[in-house]
Amino acid sequence: MKRSAVLLALIAGLFFPGISQPESGNSFTLYRDLVCSKDGNTSLLLDLYLPGGASLPAGVGVAGLAQEKDNPEKMINSALPVIIWIPEAETEKFPTPVAAFVGNGYAVVSLQAGVDSTVLNNIGLALEYLREKAATFNLEMENIGLIQQRTGGYRAAIWQKDMLQLKSVAAATLQTNIVAASDPDFSILHSGENSGALLTFFDKHLRNGKQKESDPLALKCPKDSWIDPVTNPIPGTTYHLFPTPVRGENKQGSYLIYLPGDYATSGERYPVIYWLHGGNGNSREGAWMCEQLDAAMQRGDMPPCIVVFVQGLPIGWYNNSKDGTMPVEDVIIKDLIPHIDATYRTINRREARGIDGMSMGGYGSLHLGFKYPELFGVVSSIAPSITSFEMERKEVIAPTFEDDTAYFNANSPSTLVKVNADYLRNNTTIRLLAGDKDFLYVLIQHFHQQLKDLQISHQYGIAPGADHDYREVISKLEFNAFEFWGSAFKALE
Length: 493
Hints:
Blueprint: H1 2-12, E1 28-39, E2 42-51, E3 80-86, E4 107-111, H2 116-132, H3 134-137, E5 139-150, E6 153-158, E7 175-179, H4 187-190, H5 192-206, E8 237-243, E9 252-258, H6 263-266, E10 272-276, H7 287-299, E11 306-310, H8 328-343, E12 353-357, H9 360-371, E13 378-382, H10 394-401, H11 405-411, H12 413-419, H13 421-427, E14 429-435, H14 441-453, E15 459-463, H15 470-476, H16 483-488
Parallel strand pairs: 3-4, 3-5, 10-11, 10-12, 12-13, 13-14, 14-15
Antiparallel strand pairs: 1-2, 2-4, 5-6, 6-7, 8-9, 9-11
Helix pairs in contact: 9-12
């Protein structure tokens, strides 16, 4: 009890305004499966993405820390110009590859696709619905943009009043085209050149040339985003969906994956690192880490590895929620890892499977790595949020742990490391990194001491002057952080 009291006093002295991971940019609001028209038992559905939206700052943090409030100013006051995405017939409307345009100040609509003969009629029905809801959703309905996926590429057009009398979107007076003979992952559409050309076209015709810059990687997700609605991948990765049967039939999740440069030609199998994002984050948050890992592989500091950037719920804690509605842990352990091993040339052994993460993700890597030591041979954690139930903001932990201190404690890395200490001591390579300016520094020191007391060998690195930001920690360490992976996977050679 005395030690806990001392820790509480120390952490209280460190309170200051801050966030618990790199700034994630603006959020948006997503409305799924709005019924814009109904004909008997058949409904025409659309998804609507709107700029702005409530999000918890950082997703983790000690109670009492100054918090960023939901900022009404983030909601755009002037009416929003509308862009409608029309996928190919018989393909899914969610996720839409142009969702990131919401960051540029557009309301993005993804319309349920139909055969070519019904496309214009479906657009007309959607527009009737959107006009009825214009005040509710703050939509500017005078000028409408369209992006149609078609054979050979994409067509962007401006909706005309007489368009329902035309045969197709191709007959629009104002249009521009992107050529793409094959673009299964939308990488051609996502390229800076093509997305920039589309935005220039719509800015000119929908808002008199006014532009708003936005980084797709910086958009925060809604809180229930098992699938990242923004499909723009980290450079060097590709975006994928996978089935999550533990959540129920026809449910899916998403991930980003980095494959080594020689993957397509080598025929080799590779170790895997699972990277877990921080609270209120998403898989795109690992962009800087992906760049650094790639450079480290190129230098030979570590072997070529597959890196999976996990899409965890923004406030899911990488735990199964007590009420069973958010089985984040099971999705990763029972769905994602088997999917990765079945889909890619992994070395399917614990010695070749690592896990790492930042903040809430650092907590998650310790939680999963210590709870499932038979799956993970390498466990790394950067600035983990290993706080106590009493310290945490209740709005952050309630969706997962409810008001149950015992459930919180049972899933804590501090508990799990004691439960599996004998196995971890002899079989797992462990690393713990943090900055000495981190508001969690005292708690991380305490966890380091716990590992020492349990005689569990681990690398412990403190970055002088680094705050609660994984980029700062890695950059300011007094040693090469990536040689850790080279050493951990050396036995595989």
